[in-house]
């Protein structure tokens, strides 16, 4: 099973600043990585697939990068609606497809 | 517009059973795999099960293998998850997802609570 590890667990950021979230896979997953955003009381929403391809209607301030085992989600100029929990998920060799434990982006 | 609407959650005692359903609309249902992903209260996301578009291939997480069964009825644009031998640790919101290897669209979820 591929283990996904996200860091940090919590990220405190001021509105308008940049947030950088990390996700590491326990073995190479090429670019088979997705990022999701989840707000309290809501279902997760796909942000990024293929490590760097934004889903439909996702603002350009969200960007993904990386391949192999190291991945980054960057949110430039954080807006109030961006404070949420973010999960990474691999879809390389499966089952199972596993998620990271999540990074909570909170208001500083 | 893709819509996924789950139903069937509820309160059940340990050892009991439930059947969840998910009605899909807004896309060609029978060509897409569908999956269930769950989230225990205050916890992260866990993939549970996947079924191929034809229904011919099914996959399960080890934590539910032998207890849960996924199925679909393409004539009704519906995917099901039969939950048997339920345990307290199965308590979670169960989300239905349109599967493109990543989970492209999500329903609003249905809560399953297993408690005596």
Oligomer: heterodimer
End-to-end gap of chain A: 36 Å
> Residue-averaged pLDDT of chain B, rounded?
97
Q: What does the main sheet of chain B amount to?
A: 7 strands, mixed
- In helices, the fraction of residues of chain A equals under 10%
Strand residue percentage of chain B: over 45%
**Count of helical regions of chain B:** 0
Radius of gyration of chain B: 13 Å
- Shape by Cα distribution of chain B: globular
Shape of chain A: globular
Percent of residues in helices of chain B: under 10%
Task: Please work out how many helical segments of chain A DSSP would assign.
Answer: 0
Order of helices and strands of chain B: EEEEEEEEEEE
Q: Unreliable runs of chain A, pLDDT <50, ≥5 residues?
A: none
Distance between the termini of chain B: 40 Å
Structural class, from helix and strand content of chain B?
mainly beta
- Output the helix-strand order of chain A: EEEEEEEEEE
Topology, element by element:
The complex is a heterodimer of chains A (108) and B (116).
Chain A lengths: L3 E4 L2 E4 L5 E7 L7 E6 L6 E5 L3 E2 L7 E6 L2 E6 L9 E6 L12 E5 L1
Parallel strand pairs in A: 2-10
Antiparallel strand pairs in A: 1-3, 3-8, 4-5, 4-9, 5-6, 7-8, 9-10
Chain B lengths: L2 E5 L2 E3 L5 E8 L7 E7 L5 E7 L6 E3 L7 E6 L4 E6 L8 E9 L1 E5 L3 E5 L2
Parallel strand pairs in B: 2-11
Antiparallel strand pairs in B: 1-3, 3-8, 4-5, 4-9, 5-6, 7-8, 9-10, 9-11
